[in-house]
Write a structure and sequence with these properties.
The complex is a heterodimer of chains A (333) and B (257). In chain A, 76% of the residues lie in helices and 0% in strands. Chain A is mainly alpha-helical and 333 residues long. In chain A, helix 1 packs antiparallel against helix 3 and helix 3 packs across helix 13. Chain A starts with a helix and ends with a helix. Chain B is of the alpha/beta class and 257 residues long. The chains are: A mainly alpha (333), B alpha/beta (257). At the A-B interface, helix 10 and helix 11 of A face helix 2 and strand 6 of B.
């Protein structure tokens, strides 16, 4: 099969998976709706039960599943390509930590309960602040290693301040709220959340999608990539800001969701001949599919309390990742 | 025409001058050797010529125009750089690796066109690596990897080829193969500058040699005039057996001084 054909098949498969999971996500929950019922719900009277469930409760959730999952997958693939390291994930730059801190601060001061969008806005402010600090520390033309080290420092600091907020929090209710939010979830969000992050997420995707060729060239090392006419500085800036925009905005709404950005590029890499540039699109689709699937799974787990999305992705993701590494180890010495 | 030229080039690395007052020209059809002990500044000079390092004084000229005035893409279309050693961070196939050499000729979102396919196929053929096209680069032997890297440079159809120790670590057969390939490219009108440690190969294949020590050229000219006992003593602190033959000079490093 030719390379282009193979690539189209991969896109078609993953896109169908996302579409199918999207429909399933709209139909799954305490009240199960068939795909036909889901479809009808969009044209029903807005006050009918099915319309409320599908359009107001489950649609924002499914749309956020796509936005958050695709952002994590795309940013993960981009960072792994830029850093030439399969262990990189979106959190490595401190963006996720910044978003979590920003959101936690809105909880701490009680803004989150006063104004529903305070939480995502605080999260986005935190994410941008983290990138700003990253730039101040590492400089615009910094080497990749400096960026990663600066990211570690930003992560440590945001984690410390988040812990401080928990430590000083006077109401146990706020403490619980902070802890639960940090576990990551896309349940009980509204379309306002979707529209709030959509422009930022789209801008981030665009910046990340521009780097395919450059990431391919980087497989041969930074000097060779430069000799092929690419500006390393421009690539770094695009990946950094692209990740900050889409993952920062996504985390601001969902809380931190681990493992998707790490595992999805890993899983799909052999499908695209290990080429970092060709991994971008499939990783975005794969991330969306994985997050939708995980978000459906949390609704199917029996019991009173719904499992948090971030808990499930880590719970299933970590052993799965270990198994994956072991099988790869066995195949390639 | 001089395809690439260094005029009194001075390059600093971390504030230390590594290359000083280096002037050389490589014309179309020439294959020129850069020799000298480790740390003499050969790789640094090559990188400056490729536009990968800034030049503090003097200038680098590509087709008689300052290198800094060329756009990155136009420069990359004309100058092929083969770095020391082989770096491949992902296990791509040989064919896809060689295709990366086409990047300077591609618009950002453009799929591969007929010219790209032809250039890649030709590069694979020229380097005898067509049979490896579907193999993964990470499992190839050292010689094969080097040939694939050369093919990657050739796929870009550069007029200037800057090769940093392309035969290091290769068996004698592969060493000769790579040198014959570079000589054939020069014959077709390329300007080739190659860093070598094997003095016999330098003497046989290069029309001219530049002998570098501590950042400066201590000798330059045709191999017979550069590879003299005096220069070898001054440059490498060695004594060598010179074996003159009907078709070139053989040089065997013999004793440290």
């Amino acid at each position: 099969m030719s390379f282009l054909k193979r690539q189209s098949v991969i896109y078609a498969l993953l896109a169908s998976a996302v579409m199918l999971l999207f429909l399933l996500s709209l139909g799954t929950g305490a009240i199960v709706l068939s795909p036909i019922k889901v479809f009808q719900a969009f044209f029903m009277d807005a006050s009918s039960q099915a319309a409320v469930i599908v359009r107001e409760i489950r649609l924002p959730r499914a749309l956020l599943g796509i936005l958050v999952g695709a952002s994590l997958g795309l940013a993960g693939a981009s960072l792994q390509g830029l850093l030439k390291n399969p262990l990189a994930e979106p959190g490595v730059l401190g963006v996720t930590g910044g978003a979590v801190l920003g959101a936690v601060i809105t909880f701490y001061f009680g803004w989150a309960s006063a104004f529903s969008l305070a939480l995502p806005l605080g999260g986005m402010a935190g994410a941008f602040l983290a990138v700003g600090v990253l730039f101040l520390m590492a400089g615009g033309s910094a080497s990749v290693q400096t960026l990663v080290l600066a990211g570690v420092a930003v992560n440590t600091f945001t984690f410390a301040v988040t812990s401080l907020a928990l430590n000083l929090s006077r109401s146990p209710y706020a403490t619980l709220e902070i802890i639960f939010w940090q576990l990551g979830s896309i349940a009980d969000r509204s379309l306002d959340h979707v529209f709030l992050i959509l422009p930022l997420v789209a801008a981030g995707w665009l910046l990340l999608a521009m780097n395919g060729r450059a990431l391919n060239a980087l497989s041969l090392g930074e000097e060779t990539a430069q000799s092929l006419g690419l500006s390393l500085r421009a690539v770094r800036l695009r990946v950094l800001w692209g990740t900050a925009l889409c993952v920062g905005a996504a985390t601001a709404v969902s809380g931190s969701i681990g493992f998707v950005g790490l595992v999805v590029p890993h899983l799909l890499r052999p499908w695209v001949g290990h080429e970092p540039g060709r991994l971008l699109g499939p990783s975005a689709l794969g991330g969306a599919a994985m997050l939708l699937a995980a978000d459906i799974a949390v609704r199917l787990v029996p019991g009173g309390t719904e499992l948090k999305l971030g808990v499930l992705t880590a719970l299933v993701g970590a052993p799965f990742f270990l198994a994956l590494i072991l099988t790869l180890r066995r195949r390639i010495p | 025409m001089n395809l690439i030229e260094a005029r009194s080039v001075r390059v600093l690395l971390g504030g230390t001058p590594i290359v000083q007052e280096a002037s050389l020209t490589v014309a179309a059809g020439e294959i020129i050797g850069l020799i000298g002990p480790n740390g003499a500044g050969k790789s640094t000079l090559i990188k400056a010529l490729a536009g990968l390092l800034p030049v503090q004084a003097g200038g680098v000229f590509l087709e008689d125009k300052p290198l800094t005035q060329w756009s990155a893409a136009a420069r990359a279309q004309r100058v092929g750089y083969l770095p020391q050693g082989v770096q491949i961070h992902w296990p791509l196939t040989v064919e896809r690796t060689v295709t990366l050499g086409r990047i300077p000729h591609q618009a950002p979102w453009q799929p591969l066109n007929a010219a790209d396919h032809t250039a890649v196929a030709q590069a694979l053929r020229q380097t005898d690596t067509a049979a490896l096209a579907g193999r993964r680069v990470d499992v190839l032997a050292g010689g094969e990897k080097t040939l694939v890297m050369v093919a990657r440079v050739l796929a870009g159809k550069p007029r200037v080829i800057l090769a940093d120790e392309p035969v290091a670590g290769l068996d004698p057969n592969h060493q000769l193969q790579v040198m014959e390939l570079l000589a054939a490219l020069a014959q077709k009108g390329c300007a080739v500058l190659v860093v070598l440690h094997d003095l016999s190969l330098a003497a046989r294949f290069c029309s001219k040699l530049f002998f570098m020590k501590e950042g400066r050229f201590i000798a330059s000219g045709p191999p017979e005039t550069v590879l003299t006992p005096g220069h070898l003593r001054a440059g490498y602190s060695i004594e060598a057996r010179l074996v003159p033959g009907p078709d070139g000079l053989g040089i065997i490093p013999w004793k440290r001084l």
